[in-house]
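Annex B. Sample input.
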Amino acid sequence: MALWGGRRYARAKASAVKRWSALAGLALGLLLLVGCREIRVKTLSTGTTAVLGGNQIIIVRDGATLGKLGIHAPVHFKSEFGAVLLMGPHDRTGYKQIVESIRANDVRVRVVAFEQAPADGGEPSAQYRSYTFWIVPNNEYRRGVRVEVVTPSDEPIASTYLP
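Annex B, continued. Sample output.
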């Protein structure tokens, strides 16, 4: 016991003070990280598919849906899901997708992408669409999050919500 201003008080042990300061530092660190969210996305494949339609982003939760798109990939749907960006249709060969960035927060995933035309103009072909296929861990899945794809000049390409 010690006296301070005529009052008695108990001093905390040094180990308890260190423990509380470590917990306070951890709590502050967690508060700072709450606003930062990084999604681990793996680009599995890019290519073309004969499934016709317009520009769209499709969330894939099973192998049957992936097979209907003409994409075959080793996805473990128990622990991950897929996202497919389809662009087109095209009637000349050589189009490919360029993804500049993927950013996410709690309410939106924003993909900046565009298609690059073939330098030589391409050859005539049957209609097709180009695709990029990503695999994302299920623990990143947030029902109701808006997924939007825009060009580098911020023009909308496609959007959807996670079901």
